[in-house]
Amino acid sequence: MRVTVLAGGVGAARFLQGLVQVVPPECVTAIVNTGDDLVFHGLHVSPDLDIIMYTLAGLINDQTGWGIAGDTFACLDFLSRYSDDTWFRLGDRDLATCIHRTGLLQSGQSLTDATVALSQRLGVGVRLLPMSNEPVPTQIVTPDGVLSFQEYFVKRGQRDEVREVHFPGIEHARPAPGVLGAIAEADAIIVAPSNPFVSIGSILAVPGVRQALRERRERTAAVSPIIDGSAVKGPADRMLRSLGVESSAYGVATLYQDFVSTFVIDEQDAALADRIRELGMKVVVAQTIMRGPSEKRALATVALDAARG
Amino acid sequence: MRVTVLAGGVGAARFLQGLVQVVPPECVTAIVNTGDDLVFHGLHVSPDLDIIMYTLAGLINDQTGWGIAGDTFACLDFLSRYSDDTWFRLGDRDLATCIHRTGLLQSGQSLTDATVALSQRLGVGVRLLPMSNEPVPTQIVTPDGVLSFQEYFVKRGQRDEVREVHFPGIEHARPAPGVLGAIAEADAIIVAPSNPFVSIGSILAVPGVRQALRERRERTAAVSPIIDGSAVKGPADRMLRSLGVESSAYGVATLYQDFVSTFVIDEQDAALADRIRELGMKVVVAQTIMRGPSEKRALATVALDAARG
Fold first, then answer.
1. What is the pLDDT of residue A232?
2. What is the pLDDT of residue B232?
3. Given this model, what pLDDT does residue B21 score?
4. Which among A59, A80, A92, A122 is the top mutation candidate for probing chain B, defined by the most B β-carbons within 10 Å of its own β-carbon?
5. What is the per-residue pLDDT across B265-275, written as a single tens digit (0 to 9) for each?
6. Could you tell me which chain B residue has the CA closest to the CA of A114?
7. pLDDT value of residue A309
8. Residue B233 pLDDT > 90, yes or no?
9. Mean pLDDT of the region B162-190
10. Nearest-Cα residue of chain B relative to residue A71
């Protein structure tokens, strides 16, 4: 059994925690968004890869959803003596990951290889694949101008209206080694409950990925990141509205209909099922809020069954 | 009044603490050894520059002589999950300095410019000049092979016999901007009580520096780093012996006689004065052990008077 998950950050990480209760971690491949990667004081930061890695390693700070539990910020606080550019809150332990990754990249390793090295050292069994080894920085167009993703997301606290999401240069990027194979060879493909534009949308924009998924549509399920019109976490709901899409599970379904055959929606959204079916998708109604281990496990089971048809 | 100091690490830093009690910091230029710089996990570390900078900023860890007082090691401890290469003990705050320096260098700044930026932010009034902007890594030849300076000094705890000290490629290095001017224009030049081979010797080996000092011999004094045959700190005494030089203030004087006119030795070494005078140097006998602020101030006064003739 091989399961491939398209993954952003926190929602995907929690979903994967459930999935590895249901299938052995070694059977799971996560194709992870790197559109929100940044170079911060010369260090290569891969926030979504790290959120997933720390979560699966049992190190994640559950309160924030990012960073390492119990981490300290002595380095960043001292860095503020030298620079005003300390808005990206990297803890001391988190920095170790970024320092080691940057060193591996500088020595000529790909982000794929560096991710293998890091996640193996933390005992993560799931295979984590960056969507691409080329930098593909997501840009957010706002009324105040174009922002990098982390400027929008962290520095400015997602307060700007999102008018467009761009992936400049992505037409020249290639899927990282293993990505297309993980899609082609999977017994089940699951789109995690992540932001459809800036987490999943960036993965889909890598040339070849969306087409590969379309060819596996019958084995592909998605879990809605929107419940009762709202995002469980993050700005997906406001982003849907400002980008002209209905802020609902139905709205997300319209973005995925060409490559997803089964859409998993929350019980609170059961009334949307018929409209989603009209898009040509099957619908599974389930409890999708992941509060604890048992709920994560239950959702993973539902999504896996949905993808396997 | 312009005072220029040739400086290594701890001994020089303590000497400079005294000097800035006697002359305004703005009048002091320290030409600092960079032969012990290293790239550690992709970060540019300049141990001697940082020891001096932290000392003059009042941040130094007085117990160790290096690093920042109260610093923590969360990053390095976490880095040990990824790498066995964590023998160079950079604290979390210390790392901030290295991260910022590396970023400045990567953005195209010289080490000179980066050092100005860092030291200004920490409120250091003394002008700190790296001896060269080109990397000039000191090599230590031991019975077990050739080591980088920090491998010898930190990783292997100075336990190896030093057979030779090399500065490979230094013939192609240039003095950093300001170095030759600081020698030519100084009213007083003082060689700090630092290791004559790996701290002062590397500075002297930068093309043009030793000749510039010779031309200012009458204004140049040195403080012996050896007292009663022993180094106050570090391996200078053993290094003198293994390199075939007498381990004494006299032995150091023989290394400096061509560019130092006045040698400051400790009261315990008064009996060596006549032998040193035979080298063509004047001798000042003083209390040279720097325990507290008043002793540092007194030694600075003595050395300054010695250099001004």
1. 87
2. 87
3. 97
4. A92
5. 999 999 999 99
6. B82
7. 80
8. no
9. 97
10. B74
pLDDT band at residue A282, thresholds of 50, 70 and 90?
very high
The interface predicted TM-score of the complex, written ipTM, equals 0.93
Residue of A nearest to B97 (CA): A79
Cα–Cα distance measured from residue B281 to residue A304, given in angstroms and rounded to the nearest whole number: 86
Which of B303, B251, B267 has its CA nearest to residue B6?
A: B303
Residue from B165, B145, B139, B155 nearest B245 by CA = B165
The residue type of B93 is R
CA nearest neighbour of A244 among A149, A138, A161, A150:
A161
| B163 min Cα distance to partner chain A (Å) | 32
Contact B267, B287 (CB under 8 A): yes
Q: Is B248 in a helix, a strand, or coil?
A: coil
> Looking at the complex, does the CB of residue B113 fall below 8 Å from at least one CB of chain A?
no
The SS3 assignment for B3 reads strand
Mutate to test the interface with A, among B59, B81, B86 (most CBs of A within 10 A): B81
Confidence band for A233, pLDDT divided at 50, 70 and 90: confident
Q: Where are the alpha helices (DSSP H) in chain B?
A: 10-22, 47-56, 74-79, 92-106, 111-121, 149-150, 179-184, 200-205, 209-214, 236-242, 249-256, 273-277, 293-308
pLDDT digits (tens, 9 = 90+) for B91-128: 999 999 999 999 999 999 999 999 999 999 999 999 99
Contacts of A239 (CB under 8 A, 6+ apart): A162, A165, A195, A197, A198
The secondary structure element, H or E, covering residue A148 is strand A145-148
Using the Cβ of A43 and the Cβ atoms of chain B, whether some distance falls under 8 Å is answered with: yes
For tokens 């000392």, the residue is: B55
Q: Which of B42, B93, B118 is facing A103, going by the closest CB pair?
A: B42
| Phi, psi dihedrals of residue B60, rounded to the nearest 5° | -65, 150
Contact A41 B99 (CB under 8 A): yes
Q: In angstroms, what CA-CA distances link B273 with A242, A284, B228, B262, B307?
A: 84, 94, 13, 11, 17
> Looking at residue A71, what DSSP letter applies?
-
Mean pLDDT of B9-18: 96
Q: Is the pLDDT of residue B309 over 90?
A: no
The residue among A44, A59, A68, A82 with the most chain B CBs within 10 A of its CB, best to mutate, is A82
Handedness of CA B40, B44, B45, B48 (dihedral sign): positive
